Input
Amino acid sequence: MSGIDTAPRAVLCGDTGGNVAILNSVDGSTLWSFGPYYFYCLSAPALQIDSTVIFPVDSTSGSSNGILHAINLETGTEVWGGAGFQFGAGIRCTPAQYANRMFVATDDGYLWSLDISDMSNPSEQWGLNVTGVSQGDPKLANRITAAAQPPRTAATATSSCPNLAGSLLLSENGMTLFMTTASGLYAIDVSSTSSGTVLWYALADNDLSTANILLAGEWLLVTLGSSIYGFNVVCLPETGGIMEAEWQWTNPGDNPLASLGMTQFEQCVTGDSTGVFYLVNTATGEQSAIFTPLSDQTPGTVFSQWSQNYLVLLSNAGFYGGYQLEFAGSGPQLTQKWLLTSTTLFSRSPLLDYLWNPSDQAIFWCTATSLGDIMAASLEDGTQLWLLPIATGGNSICSATILNVAISTGAVRFLMDGSDYFITLRNFLLALAAGNFTDVDVTMPTDTTFKGLVQAAGSAGASVYVLLWDVGYLKKVAGLADKLGFPLGINLYCNKNTVTQLTGLTGISASLDTYGYLWTPQNLSASNHEKIAIFYIDGQKYALVAGLNTDADYMDQQSHPVCSPAYASCHDTAILLTGDACQRVETEFDRRWANSHAQQLPTTTGNYAKIAGWEVDGTMDLNALNCGGTSPAYTDPQITTGAVNLDVLSNNYEFITCQKTEIIQAIISEIGQATSSIYFENVGWTSADLVTTLTTRLKAADATNLTVIIMIPCPQPQEAEDSFQQAFNLLTYCSVVAIWLQLDNWTSFTTTDNETIQRTDLQSYSVTLRDYPFVTRSFSYTTKATQSSFTINLYEITAVNTTETRLILCGPARYFANVDASNTTHILNGWANNYRRIYIHSKLALFDDKVAILGSCNFNWRSLSMDGEMSVRIRDAATVQEIRTTLFNHWNMTDFATWTDKMTAFSQLATSGSTVEQVGILPTSLSNLWTSYSDMTWSAWFNLFWVGT
Output
């Protein structure tokens, strides 16, 4: 663990008098304070969505009216106003959220679904009486669905109330919600925005309102007293709607369980009230280890919590300790890192015992004074960082939550295409070998491959850590042979070969990252897709966050001469950072390294580099541009401009309780606020959540002048019908059609059967989009004349008659004045031979010339919900305008207003016989996007899953 991260985090805490404060987690100072909220108290930990924190408050004397309040962390202002969002019944558990929907459970047994695509104005979608199901009903899943306006009746705020909700936990795909109550466990299908459905219930008549609940792949774990119950949630119960536990583990000491966490190798960890903790297999319930770390200390109730492989124990006798769990050949081993005695005892409040902030390397908890203090301690050695009395006036602390204060700072440099990115990467490795950035000290080695430059740095005394995704493990788990042509799009052995090349070199540590330990159908396609690098040289720290893989196909010049056989010519983007934002990137690397090795990152002294990637070819020459371009000499890569506001955003879905999806939340937030322009560059635009959010935004009254440009690779006729890019094309096509058919500007559409459907002939119609468990892109309608209802796939629609002009779908190309007519390599659907494709590999979005988001994350469900990804959000208008100007100039464009005119002019160069060779933009219409599968082979369906889900 590397020291305290000084970038801002926060602790939100509240007392029983209705006062709420947001504290700086580094020093305990107050960032914002609010309340009192009408003599209400903070009734559950808060939920953070992007820069908005949402928290429930409730009466201290009962459960009469649960209210949600929302605060913007950047401005310290209330988002929903003083009255908040009221439910008429108490709220005792943290709301759950997926994309633009939020779920709230109330003490009258209802589950509520809210639309939060417009965060400033949430709207109710449905409410479901979860605990009102008839137990034993053989058709339970079809019986209980949401009423349009269910009654909002108050419930008694006691644990004996059978309707009392304890906790909410969403499945990783956002389709199923698990809800614990005082009358048992319920699973609810929440995939629909119009209704919810109870799928099954379990542990009926048991009070689970204070139970721990954990989702580990296909297993749902629930604590009840001294036992853990394991439910396989992939299957539905056969009869009666009753789900039986597959296994039950009972504490041999019969002591109540105090925590439930996840560790490596399909192991969950639980601690009990005496300080003993156990490792239990999540799939079988078999006990694998017992540890008693405080057995020789003063007796007292001990509370244990876990994050990754680190344990913290708190005794109400005043002891607290930190422990590291490691998995070695001899089995799991526990190492005490520190054990200290506090001058104050620790609170046993059910709402807050201990909070963990791994990014700050700090821990926080409430003490057991009469009012309650919040104490912060270093995770590294347990020393107290600060102790702050919070509650006043006879009140006491009732809850607290760790938050991310969204804004970090850093100087940035925008990098475009391989000629910018790889030369910058080369220059940092050269400076690392030299030990400083001074030009005269830098020597270009004979071997300028990735391996050669890393080897030179290690030989010069620097430390280099290289962590690459273990692609071969995915192939092994999936049981796929080479002959199946597994569509990864990369060399299955590239990363393994690179690690082999680097292993044993002086100063170099290289390893494969087995991403994900719980392989299920849900996460089979998950990958570690980040492309990051951190350099510490002569006291200065820099970080690279990119969309480019370290492979020769991406080493393209900005003139895009179209010479790479794999991608024609490849366009991509990256960002170089310095300042406190670099720590966020490095913390993510350190976390991944520790997870992969079940140990801490080795102590780093002197100059070092940390490089992680989805694909890194050790033989790639970083000093050689494609098509024989001349690489520039070394120049100092440091940034000298001022710092700007930015966020480092990451996604992950590993073996932990739930996935982290910061990037999609940021994109959804920015779409919801854009009023003038949105610009996307990506290999495809397929996420159902983004489609729904953009559609909602385009319908808004203040979006009449909003221009949206979606740039994807131009389709090629040579692409195989079941290829990776064709799947992107198909789903992007469906996304655009879905938006058009949900707006009001269409009059008719034509199907693959050459049938034309007039909008005026329809009584009703709707679009259904779903990424998982099956790729669903459909259009349903009922005719006026016969009242007949039909449902068709969106890719069966071949044309839409619409006047909608705000959405522009396009792709870049290189125009050649003279071409060999017999050469059809990388020609484009519907265009003359003179145009050849420039492959869009960047993952970039711009909003209103104010905000930019770019990095490794594609705009599809897999990347946004499953893969390990990192992107950077820049919140500085001048910097974003500079990025947009650089990009538009690159495409021979000037602004949004003239985009269509210039695109049309470029598309007519071949007709006019122009002799000026240039790069430009072509419109992408439905007619030249591939629209349907003629042969739905296994590979085709897999690509739909891989790309669309």
Notes: DSSP finds 14 helices and 58 strands in the chain. The first strand starts at residue 9 and ends at 15. The longest helix spans residues 724-742.
